[in-house]
Structure formats: structure tokens, C-alpha cells
Design goal:
By secondary structure, the protein is an alpha/beta fold. Helix content is 19%, strand content 29%.
Length: 122
């Protein structure tokens, strides 16, 4: 039988971990990780899941949907009201790419470091 593994953290590369943690703290309501600083920062959800951000020298943001600098990974979040969530995220510093393949079902955004993430209806 394979070992039982529980996901405890997702860590994304970026140029400014503290800015990323602040963005996701405001967007999700998660708590700032107590060991956050200039080289690593994160937010912790109520179930203990950490979304972390690590500083990478020479970081190059993904260019979604292009593949010159591929996205490599992305996060999906459920929300009750897509329009309300979109307004908040854009105010916090997210961007909404022109290419939106999800129709009315989901929307693609990029965080301040350029990582794509999606919102779906809950």
C-alpha cells in the first residue's frame, strides 16, 4: 500500500515573497505565516495548508497563455460571486488576461508575480 500523504504546502517562485503573501492574505483571508520574511513568505489556511512564496534571483513571470515562459503550475479557487471576487482581486493587484477560455464557468487571473490562477463558482 502506498504511503498516505497529506498536502501541507504549495510554494511558488517569485521576486518579492512579502508582496505575494500580502496579496494572497487579502484575497483568501488566510493568516500570514509566522516565518515570513524577504526570502520566503506565506499564508496559512484554516486547515494548515501553506501557500508559500520563495525569492528567486532573476525570476521571470509566466506568460499565460503563451509558452515562451510557461505557467508550470496554477492555483484554482472557488468563490460564490465571480464578479465580486474579480473586482476585489483587480483592486489588490491581480491582472485579468484577455484570453479567457472558461466562458461563464471560470476566469483566469494572474497574481502580482505573473502566476496564473483561476476562479470558479462554488
Amino acid at each position: 500500500m502506498p504511503p498516505q500523504m497529506k498536502l501541507t504546502a504549495i510554494t511558488l517562485d517569485c521576486a518579492d515573497p512579502e508582496t505575494m503573501a500580502a496579496f494572497y492574505r487579502e484575497a483568501t483571508g488566510f493568516e500570514l505565516h509566522p516565518k515570513s520574511g524577504p526570502d520566503f513568505a506565506g499564508v496559512t489556511g484554516p486547515d494548515g495548508l501553506v501557500i508559500g512564496f520563495q525569492r528567486v534571483d532573476g525570476y521571470r513571470a509566466p506568460r499565460w497563455p503563451g509558452q515562451v515562459v510557461p505557467q508550470q503550475s496554477h492555483l484554482d479557487f472557488k468563490v460564490e460571486d465571480l464578479d465580486e471576487a474579480e473586482a476585489l482581486l483587480l483592486e489588490l493587484g491581480a491582472a485579468k488576461p484577455e484570453h479567457q477560455p472558461g466562458g461563464d464557468g471560470w476566469r483566469v487571473f494572474t497574481d502580482p508575480a505573473g502566476h496564473p490562477f483561476c476562479l470558479t463558482r462554488s
